[in-house]
Fold each of these.
Amino acid sequence: MSLFGMSIAYSEEYTATNYKVLDPVMNSGSYGASTNFKLFGVISQISTGTSTSATFGDNAGFLYYPTVSSPAVSVTPGDGQVALSWTASQAYVGWTVTGYNVGKSTASGGPYTFTSLGNVTSNTQTGLTNNTPYYFVVTVKDFFDTIIATSTEVSSTPVAPTVTPPGGGGGIAPPVSSGTNVEFSGRAYPVSKVNILKDGQIVLTTIAGPDSNFFGKLSNLSAGNYTFSVYGEDKNGLRGSPFTFPIFITAGVTTKIGGIFLAPTISVDKSEVIKGDNIIIFGQSAQNAKVTINVNSDANIFVQQQSDKNGVYLLNFDSSVLELGNHSAKSKQAVGSEISPFSSAVGFKVGTKNILGTGKCTGRGDLNSDCRVDLVDFSIAAYWYKIKLSDSFKLIEKSRLNADGKIDLTDFSIMAYYWSG
Amino acid sequence: MTFFKKITIVSILFFFAVPVFAGQVFFLTEKQSFAQNEEFLVSMYLDTEGEALNAFEGKISFPVEFLEEKEIRDGNSLVNFWVEKPSSVPDGRGGKSGVITFSGITPGGFSGEKGLLFSIVFRTKHSGNVSIQMDGLRFLKNDGVGTETKASSLPFSLFISGETATSSAIIEPIQDNEPPENFTPIISSDPNIFEGKYFLVFATQDKGSGIDQYFVSEDNGVSFSPAHSPYLLQNQSLDTKIIVKAVDKNGNEKVVEVPAKHLEKDKQIFLLFGILSVSALIVFLYRKKIWKKNM
């Protein structure tokens, strides 16, 4: 089926006039392999490919849609070693991540020597030569040990540390060193604002280039455990989902966090749409990215689009294929072999009237209606924690939090999810 | 039940088994056998078992006949903002009840196998077998609705012998010479708290010994009052600068200032007078120039 030049795939059912395929199964087939190729076979569903005719286009196979996100990798140099940690890959539509490999090379671009690991998100490469640059990639494996995603390359040069690191929970706290730095690099949206949060508070704002790439650096940190989050704001002020990772920063060295690939921003033009009318799903991604939009319904609907040179994507979605009721949409993007996680979902309703959307402010967690969820909102909620709510604040709690008439941990969790800093 | 049926049922259960994601808390300490009057450090860690969790709360209970809580160390915690800082519940008689409560959030969520929640320094008292329990554990997912995940804790037991420890059996304070991290307090107002009056919000971290307390001055540093965020400002005119001091448990201080939002009244009058004077002078000089031209 082809609709406005795009193909729609249902993850559970393919239907045409003359055939119906129900509940296609992934990964129950097997591999055919030779020196030069590997053929994936699945029961009742053909592998990646495109069938076309004058009257239809068919992008067949769940393998057609990128379904595993690329990890972001941090590298911290040490004495004859480099400590790596990475974000866990997100897998969808039948894929399962079962392990990782760390590839190491002394030349950018490889070839790499790989160390096979289990389902862990950290590894220390030892036996390295100080003051020699090393280049690393992390690959993601499925149940069959097939590589299903690869991180971008990061580099680090082992050096002897200048400050003794602390013990856990006691001992000597290391001094702030001018050499204790963190560098962030990755991909956002063309010429977009990129915010970097340290332990929940914005500490750095940078601007991505026209190529969507961004870089930021924090200096003079103390050694210790940190939670860093990175998110972008597109040209319309829409905020993307944060990319969050915990990390231990070692004193006296520069930790690099690379391969941060932000999910696209996403919004809808209507909060409610009459069944059969179109709803516009739009946002911004990296330039010329392959954007996969997932509309959640009883059957998951995937649509793929190409963003333009400004990273803008827009989908005019026919709501006639959706049931009445609440739905949501989210998107992810791919550039080359890099795949972002899915964005947060944006909700809408298929009903009996068209109601225009509220714009960039979702309202959830935003207790003072300043279009941000930050320490001020946290403090307002803390004021009402475990005490009887006033009548006016009950209305705020009902519309912005979980509507149970009280402030407790669940409300703080909602704020933590929608946090903007 | 026939063997075949058992196998069938087990097979069906196996094929329909789904992974149960949970958060598990575990304690780590250097050893589990102590003398009497010996101090030791217990650290509480969280394994999110593959989930991203963003809200945490619970209670730790220990028998006060056997253990005395000396210090709670929350510096370097994975929790960014405490709703309830880890603290001992008083027993109502001036002492501690043997219960420590905590509650907090990490915006964006935490996912990992060994995230530090906080540590406790205990001193042993009488000999015996002792258990430290966890109760009321709640871990919520970073999913936008606060879905509760299955929380569990590994039991922690220790043995206190009949021997008495030497004077050296103490946990040294963290040698922390660094101040808390820099931060930016924010003045705000909201009709739903403090009757719409101006208040101050602030929060920072200390990666060494942890934050002990905050103080606020609204009189240019002449006096400081202990403060919690949100802090109701005494001076609602906002015409003096506000100084906030974050102090860690080793006494190191980070002092930040919030400039006055409005000028003080006498300065406002002075400024207005100055503007009027300058305007009058300009008009006077201009007219003089025109008059000379016409001459």
Amino acid sequence: MVLLYLLLGTAFGFVLSRSGAADYDYVQGMFLFQKFQLYGIIGTAVAVTAPGLWLLKRWGRTAFGEPLAVKPKPRHPGNVLGGVLFGAGWAITGMCPGPILVNIGEGKLYALGALAGVLCGTTLFGVLYERLQRPLGLPALRLGTGDG
Amino acid sequence: MLILHHLTPLHWALAGALVGVITLLLLWLTNQRLGISTGFENVCSLVVNTPYLRRDEITKSHGFRLPFLGGLVLGGVISALAGGGWAPIWDLGRFDATFNVGHAGKLLWMFAGGVLIGAGTRMAGGCTSGHGIFGLSNLEGASLVSTLSFLGAGIVVANLVYRVVA
């Protein structure tokens, strides 16, 4: 199983690397409405995944006969505030989480700065969770904000 | 042209279809929903002992998320090697053409953005993959709200950086 995760992650990373999704100029081109590329990729990915997912859920089993488990993410006020913070970071770095790792693999050394920042930001959020939970209206600690 | 060896990128329709196929294979073969940013919680939980980062969902998913994240790095390495050779890169395209800050300045800029990405994705409960691709495909309300929020904020901030400040 570990090998399969590694393999699928590698394939995903290769596609992100070669499509522009892990490229600073393509990301800025998306946000500045100068390049269609990344809108096309996200749109096509959803157009392929949505019907496939619907079929898989109807079928209800994995390739190995396990019952399919698709847990929807909880809706909470953190979706908006967290989304805004993340979007700002995406525009500043030109990378979302996957491409940070892809860029490090490609040899883009400045992406190490982004990774260090992400790990600090994640730790900060984790450590402060119990204090942020009530004021921000976040889900119970054991549920989390959404995994993915 | 990509910053990486000035390669011509894959057509968006092909790249998008491949992303969709990989997402579906991950679910069909391994029963996992695509999502990358939660994996950073797995990484942090290896060294930081705090209840949120040590909740069951994290401690029980190391076997999936850590190799998947490792694969993303490996995919980048293979892409560079196959596309003209691996070499350290400091080029940042449009950023270099607009700002002159040097290596340390770039690392600081990236670090600051990274903190926002780490805290923001975890607060929103997902990123472009978990909300934008999987969640939207599964017609989840939280994912629609999150995706509109991060795309909207990205558009505002990129325009501030390149059309107001620069």
Amino acid sequence: MNFLSLTGIELQKIRRSKILLILLAPVVIMWLPAIINSEKIQDVQGIPITPEHNFFIQGFMGMVWFMIPATLIICTVLLIQIEQTNHGMKKMLTLPINRRMLCLAKFAVLLLLPAVQMVMSTAAYYGSAFLSSKLQGYDYILPPGYIFPCIGKFYLAALPAAAVFWMIALLIQTPVFAVGTGLALCVPSVLIINTDYWFLHPMSYPFYMLMTEYGKAAKGLYTTDIDWFPWLPVAVMITVVSLAVSCVKMSRYEE
Amino acid sequence: MRFGMELKKLRRTGYFPAFPAGAAAASAFPILNMAVRTEVYTGLPGNPLDILLDASWQMMAMLNILLIVCCTCMMYHTEYAENGIQKMEVLPVRQISLFLRKFLITTAMAALVIMIEFAALAFCILMWFPDAGIDLKEFLCHWSFEVILLLPTIMVSLIIASACRNMWISLGIGVILVFTFSVLPKDYLFLDLCPYCSPYQLLTAAEENGHAALFLGVCIGETALAGMAEHIYLKIRRYFS
């Protein structure tokens, strides 16, 4: 079985899992208050930022800080637990498939789900910016040339965290510890991005991306240039090592 | 004996070690914060406990809420995983008493967690504010206030966990609720009284605004109401299962 058909099977497994609703809910919850508060967004509290940038960044702040990593954790729970009912994993492992490939196929699904959520967020952003513009008589809509690369960057920055969560989910068999460790790792990112060693904490990468965008939109608030070094090599290393450990763990998986 | 049964079910799930582990994670926070930024806090005027709580309680409360969400999901996950709940339904045990026992166990564990966290705060005071003594009564007041404010969150999380067969759904709803209340504006009293939001409140601030009794009353009321709602829900569900 090749990689694509394995991924297809994984997608089929989660068809009735209602995960899309779980992905959609925070997106709606995030942008509804934005419409209601669109009047307050005009008050930038002395920060030199345009209201439309303020609207975009404030709206995405909670999402990037907490919801993207938390979504990844929920998706790992889904991918692991869906195999537990009726001994699904046992049946999977009796098939003549490469276990490492199975591990990577599951990881591909793990990457696909937040991508879907990002698409939903983009649509929700445009919907809410459009409605707010109509309500306030001020143009909140930013051009797609700015929005799409921004959201793309948030998404790409979340990939190392996805690999780490996937490794945690496979290594720690007790779900309560796997989930608890993941959630506890998400919480301190607000503090960690203000330290010099933020690049060692993959869960804060998307938030760092957002803060650099904030720095660009509001001069002097945060750094505007991304420190690619040593971030990029560290991020790549974390991702590769986590994936390698997950593959090894999956190839020795026993129920 | 039935209480023992509930405890037995949780034995191999990692439920009991999870609470001290969560408490350790949350307790590490004020200690690290003090160790790194000692001058910022020791120079502040006022009661050391208030300074420490102002600096770190938001983060600690969030960790507590996430711990509760995670552990309550786990509690019902073990029931649903091997259809244990169906077996429980044939026993002469009322579903609601099963639920209430789970609630009591979680509350006891949460009270322990907050106690460990306050012990960590006491350690911080002894370490970095040597002139200030530790007022045990003050600690007990803060501790009991935070435990009571956590009750509605425990209750609602358990209700969600009991309603959802799949762990990712109950966990997803719980995490989304935590997220929702963390992004909502903070200047409405009504929102502060909601489950998932009340644990962030502090006794000192509530007393200053004259809301301490209100918080306690509303939180206990919410817990009782939610408990009754769960009782009705379980009764209705039996007709359809």
Amino acid sequence: MIEQNKGMLFKICRIYQDDPQDRDDLLQEMTLQLWLVFDSFRGESKISSWMYRVALNTAIVFFKKQKRRPDSELLPENFDRPQDPNLGEEKEAQLALFYKALQQLDKVEKALIFLYMENQPYEEIAANLGISQVNLRVRLNRTKNKLKEIIKKMNYEY
Amino acid sequence: MNIDDLKDAWNKDEPAGMHLPVSTASLGKTSSAVATIRKNMKTEFIATLVSYIFLIAYSITMRFLVGPGVQTVFFLNIISILLFTILILNFFYFQRFYLFYKSIGRYDFSIKNSVNKIAYELELNTEIYKTYNFCVTPVAVLITITLMGGKDVFDWFMRLLSSNAFMSGTMLLIFATILISFLVTYFFVNLHVRLKYGKYLAELKQVMDDLGSE
């Protein structure tokens, strides 16, 4: 189950943590939490929806370490660059920029955009965040505009 | 660039350079807020048990160090009563902390409910922790001073208790000692809680605010 959805976990780590070691730690923590609370999954929703919820909750209450371990292994330098050869250079660059812009959002906005990009229905996103659908639509528009401004400030055309 | 146009690229993309933990043995070594709180709680519980063993063992050896006599027995009785009082206080607070320990870290609620629950429990328990230390630490300090002081402190207390006149100077000294030990405890417990959990709590409250503004 975790193996099948690992891409989702990797993306959450990438959005929520900018340090490679923190990303690894967060990935460990999310995997651990998925193991620990698996018994609570009652099949009322899709397994992927349940995983989104557990993984995002873990990411939101996860805090960076104060000091890095001296033996930390750094991730490859090209980690932030999408690796799919079919993406094309332009899309690849846009996606890398998009990830950088996402770093400037707050934790709730990151969760919102992540679920939106994962094509989750509005109903599911609202349920995962614990807000109403009306509020969700307002927030989504506001966050998209904020992202647009961030990307503009990064001197790119939106 | 349009966000919606990026959805395809997003869904095809899979970040490289990360690997899932290969075994459960490598899990549980992380530094999430909840894991840190749990670790601290466990350490403090063990430290309390060790301090009890130390105090009880020392109380027993005192009987042999000071030698037999009415004074020794009298003070050992008083110390036993104080230790038992602290034991009851410890039991009450630790069973409360244990419930908190078991309940924190449920991540399968909605984000709003999960963060609210963790923030509420964390704030409640830091306040309980402060009152617990405020009650227990000064008494424990006084017991330790009495035990460490040995025969001199025993004799001094005995003179005070058997005196016929009210010793205002001595009483003031005792009141000042008690007051200072309470103030020092209050200061350090607050500082400890703020340094240890203040940042986590502030971040959780920020998330609550972000989610709460409907």
